[in-house]
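User: Predict the structure for this protein chain, please.
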Amino acid sequence: MKLHHIAFWTRDIQGLEDFYVTYFDGKVLFRHSIGDFRCVFLEVFGSVKLEIMTRTAIADYDLEERVGYSHISIELDSREQVNELTDFFIKENIRIEKNKEQYDDGFYESSIRDPDGNIIELAFVDRVANPKV
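Assistant: Here is the predicted structure, written as structure tokens:
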């Protein structure tokens, strides 16, 4: 058994596709539509599949903490990469959720929001400080 993909609903399928293609090296694998449903499958980071879906009526949602999906975490190779990517997103006017925070469990991270408000965490994991991660 293995994870196949992560799926998101959106009102702006092209805008969300453009975001992941532009900033996360997304590659379109295929598109599908039936009735008023449309989706695009993307591969990001060379191995993770995302399905971005839309239909005529999508309900609003609350961006505050709630039960369910929280975030996607991207592991980077160093604190410097977290800093560089965070600074890049700041220059690109991408919404920063968390800016370069160190935690006592060995995680050093920032996080951003995609155009629909989904959180993407940028993390360096210090496995000396936390070998169980």
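The chain has two domains: 6-54, 71-125.
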